[in-house]
Amino acid sequence: MTGLGSTMPKLRVRGATKVYETRSGDLLALDRCSLDVMPGEIVSIVGPSGCGKTTLLWSMSGLHGLTGGEVLLDGKAITGPNPAIGMVFQEANLLPWRNLDSNIHFPFEIKREKPDREWIASLVSRVGLDGFGGRFPRELSGGMQQRAALVRALSFKPSVLLMDEPFGALDSFTREEMNHLVEEIWMDTRTTIVLITHSIEEAIFLSDRVVVLSPRPGRVANIYEVPFPRPRSMEIMATKEVFDLQNAIKREIVGEQKSRYAALQALPDAIPAPTH
Ligand SMILES: Nc1ncnc2c1ncn2[C@@H]1O[C@H](COP(=O)(O)OP(=O)(O)OP(=O)(O)O)[C@@H](O)[C@H]1O
């Protein structure tokens, strides 16, 4: 499943360009983004708000078409939803009238597929939800709901897990717990993971590489290697090396925003002067 020595990227984004048609005209969200994600890698995507992170991730999932460019999974173009790709969103999106077990099994009902009950039970146990199968979403904390969403996404044994700001709605303590959980699961399964996050600390904790996108239209501005060994303990996360990397990424994001602003200022009449 890992194939870390292999040279073929698991996911390959080539020249991804996305134009949204809006009432006020075309909006260029992504502009020729290219990125390779190797098998078993964890890659985080960070960048200023609205730079196209979600657009890029959704195009990797096949849920969103591109205006230009392509996304390849194991060398084959992705043209629609793919069972080899699991997704986790900021909201757990559990059906309120179904209990936890029934929520986890729901996608199998829809697809009329037989779930691997042993695998699912091991995941439920792994995320600490043993004994909660009969509970309804309203009876579960936000962290527990997100654990269930993680189980649901992994229940199909995807080879790629895409996560869109999955822990953004959780308190910082629960978020840290979830980060450790993802790290543990990854160490067991070596699933290829692409993660969008607004937390640079989270990106560094989880990733092999952190991709910084420029302000919209999103382009790959820089890619940072994260060289720290796993599991990444609190001691590792408190080192100067981590702190320096965190600052470098922050500076990159802020610098990108500033240079965009400076370029706008330099354009004649780009920002009209007040008339009164
Ligand atoms: N369906 C859509 N129709 C029109 N415009 C869209 C659509 N989806 C996104 N956009 C616009 O495309 C740009 C990129 O959006 P996207 O959600 O991909 O950015 P993001 O980096 O994920 O943002 P955030 O960090 O705030 O979640 C934004 O300007 C957004 O308003």
From TrEMBL:
Domain ABC transporter span(s) in chain numbering: 11-240
Record's keyword terms, sorted: ATP-binding, Nucleotide-binding, Transport
The keyword Repeat is assigned to this record: no
Lineage top rank: taxon: Bacteria
Gene Ontology MF annotations: ATP binding; ATP hydrolysis activity
Xref: InterPro entries: AAA+_ATPase, ABC_transporter-like_ATP-bd, ABC_transporter-like_CS, ABC_transporter_ATP-bind, P-loop_NTPase
Family the UniProt entry places it in: Belongs to the ABC transporter superfamily.
Protein name: NitT/TauT family transport system ATP-binding protein
Protein's organism: Kaistia hirudinis
Organism phylogeny: Bacteria, Pseudomonadati, Pseudomonadota, Alphaproteobacteria, Hyphomicrobiales
